[in-house]
Amino acid sequence: MRKYSSSSMIAIIALASISAESFADNNLALDEIVVTAQKTSESLQHVPVSVIALGQDALGNLKFRNTQEIASQAPNVQMLGSNGDAQLVLGMRGVTQSDYSPNGTGAVALYVDEIYMGATPLASGVQLFDVERIEMLLGPQGTLYGKNTTGGAVNIITKTPQMDGTSGYLELGLGNFEYRNIAGAIDTELGENWGARLAFTRTKNDGFVDNLLPNSKNPSQINEGALRFTLAYDGENLEAILRLHRSRSRGRHSSILMVEADGGVDNGGVGLGHTGYGRGELDFHDTESNRVEEKEFDLVGANLTVNYDVGAYTVTSITSFDKGDYFVPEDADGSPYNLLEDDFKAVTKQFSQDLRLASNFDGKFNFIGGLYYSQDTTDGETTYRWLSDYGDDTQPLANNCLDTYFLGCYYANSYTQKRDTVAAYFNSTYALSDSLTLTAGIRYTKDNIEMLDYTSFLGEANNSFATTSDGPSLGSLGLDGRNDKISDSNVSFKLGLDWFINDDIMVYGSYSTGYRGSAFNGFAFAPEEFTSVQPEKLKASEIGFKATLQDGRTRLNGAAFYYTYKNQQFLIFDGGLQYLLNAGASEIYGLELQLTTRVTDKLTVNAGVGVLSARYTELTYAGVNLAGNRLPSAPEVNMNLSVDYDFWQSGSAWAQLHYDASYVSTQYFEPFNDDRLNQPGYAIHNVRLNVSLDDEKHSFGIYVKNLFDKEYASYSVDLTADWNGLFFFRGTPRTMGIDYKLRF
Q1: For the whole model, what pTM was predicted?
Q2: What number does CATH give the domain 7-743?
Q3: Which of 69, 151, 272, 525 is a Cys-bridge partner for 108, taking CB atoms 3.0 to 4.6 Å apart?
Q4: Which of 298, 301, 415, 306 is nearest to 350 (CA)?
Q5: CA 739, CA 741: separation in Å to the nearest integer?
Q6: DSSP labels for 174-242?
Q7: What is the dihedral of CA 672, 677, 678, 679, to 10 degrees?
Q8: Do residues 64 and 76 make contact, with C-beta atoms less than 8 angstroms apart?
Q9: Inter-residue contact 458 to 474 (CB < 8 Å)
Q10: Count of alpha carbons within 13 Å of 503, Cβ hemisphere only?
Q11: What is the pLDDT of residues 655-685, one digit of tens each?
Q12: Domain residues of the chain, as ranges?
């Protein structure tokens, strides 16, 4: 595999900074970025929080398809592909989710139009299309947001009706791996105060992993589509937005790479060392998988946002209902044998209501206060099929599950989990002087989780792989209609000061606490696995600055932080069992720096760097002291860079070259820090050529992503004990394509 040094990216970031000082032109001010990170529209440079914002132009050039990819252009934001493209998990500053069970929720909250999409069947169905901007807030959230989280929040804000005649766009795309895409929107004014917008997307490819097994299909396929209808009313004192959305995915799943562990084929190959199978001369993106089936994601929902102005106050109500169906069939051994095949199924229904009151006083004091309620129900099922083929590479051996309780068995569980959250929050600002402002916020949260009818059983795995349905149960695994419940309560808060040294430079400091509620293990089969974990708690100190320099041509923002992290929840696989556990304590500290500068009237540079130290201070497992090990998905350095060069313009036509890159240093995906499973540092480079005609009525693009075809893993697990294998999810190889956009 190729290796890339980060020195080139450091040099470019340094050059960009120097260049920003080398040119002087007062007419090159950057466009102001307006965000709603604090539940009100304000300039990014006035928000005393570490925020990364990506607008329409950036999103168009970056060609993001899902939430996993946004980490590439954000310092100290990590992605964890714990179930490949089927489950996309984000982390911030080393705080992430390593439990990939369908009933779990993330340490980083995902919001779409202020609606929390926490449960896996909901978050996995989110598609990025017709998006106005994406905001990433680093650090604990809660005094302003519906759901309290330890790591941070990602806000996806979709486009709303423009209330200005009729307009829209149609976009077409083609690429390698038989990629094709069509997307568009139509926006129309329905009357004096009414507007509507209909947006859609449809994307397919034939899979980027080549299955060399005869008469087999390629995995890692995209086959998805989504639709959103938005109706808006904008009156004198009342604004209301109704959104109806639906998304569907049926792509063939699995980008799994199983590498034979210690001793390789000489040790018997994968599968308890008795198949003799190894990958041999297969390329990184080749496989010989005997089970390639479609994942099934369906997400449907409706939400209503109402803002009502009453004098110096605004009352806001956000009501939503969402339903997500999630099915992931997985060939976890990635081989021609039936060694380890999994099915993950879940259906989540969620209702939420956020009601808040915001002041708009002329004086020194203002506030936002609110009440939040959410309730979700998840019906989950998981099936593991073990070693139905336990052969010698020529003739599989017959197995009877009840003879061994291991060879040729399937293990299944089912449960219903009900979870409700009630919270009250209050956030206030007080101007101590014209340049100094105090922020104080508090939140009370009450969480209840009830696990109902948790049952596990086993049966014969033979002949069940192709149909994804198993034979009759042969007996219980010890969990028979188990019921349990957890109740948590928490008070979290934030205190902060921001000081405007002048109109262009602000410094700020804050101390806040974060909380993530308890959880049940959704992967329990044996009684000893049926466990719950305590809430995560985080204490965060942060100082930062935001500077607008060179008469608005350059923005330079930075932050340094220190966290103490208690009871981090993580899932561990050991000897055929999976345990959901709490780490005792961790210490996290680091910094991030973001630069945007318009070097000339044709050249704009964005650059960022994150430096992170995230290590356990208290963690013991199976008698082994793991204190000092790195947290999962917490690279010590990550960097991002994008460059836009408008190299030609004539009348209403122009052409632009875009380049972006990201670098991630060595990272682990499990707490043992096994070097066999780590992902060495790597860089991804992307390029794009844009041509626009007739005042952007017609736009053309040619792009290449992962230009140097870097091979990397997004997740790994040690399966040596039972399958003599090391399990990885592959990252996406080089993709290229063309697209055309018509605006009307």
Answers
A1: 0.91
A2: 2.40.170.20
A3: 151
A4: 301
A5: 7
A6: EETTTEEEEEEEEEEE-SSSEEEEEEEEEEE---SSEE-STT---SS--EEEEEEEEEEEE-SSEEEEE
A7: -160
A8: no
A9: yes
A10: 3
A11: 999 999 999 999 998 889 999 999 999 999 9
A12: 7-743
